[in-house]
Amino acid sequence: MPLSEHEQRLLDEMERNLYQSDGDFVAKVGGRRSRPGYRSVVLGILVVVLGIATLVTGVFIQLSIVGIVGFVLMFGGVMLAIAPGRRPRGSAEKSGGAGGSTSRTTTPGFMDRMNDRWERRQDGDH
Prior knowledge:
The chain has 126 residues and is an all-alpha fold. The chain has a domain at 37-82. The protein has 7 helices and no strands. The chain has helices at residues 5-21, 23-29, 38-60, 64-82, 91-94, 102-106, 110-123. The two termini are 35 Å apart.
């Protein structure tokens, strides 16, 4: 069941506030997986092709250790090709993940308003 527009806005605002208040935690826990880099994919494909050639050579000369090495090369090539790319340090601040804009920090967000209400209730100022 999809969220209503109001619920979606509240969820987006809570997410923005979480990024603002604890960006490092968000980067550690919920860090989005980055896509594999072009270099890694190309290198991985080359290693897989080399592994296939080594495996076929091992079968052709009937030497099992060469075939095993070929299989290990193929497996390593696939792992290299699908491994997520590395993000440079500080990329969360550049992408706006934890940095945010200054206009957002000047207006109180949903969680700030909820905290203010809670504190007023605790103080007895209904």
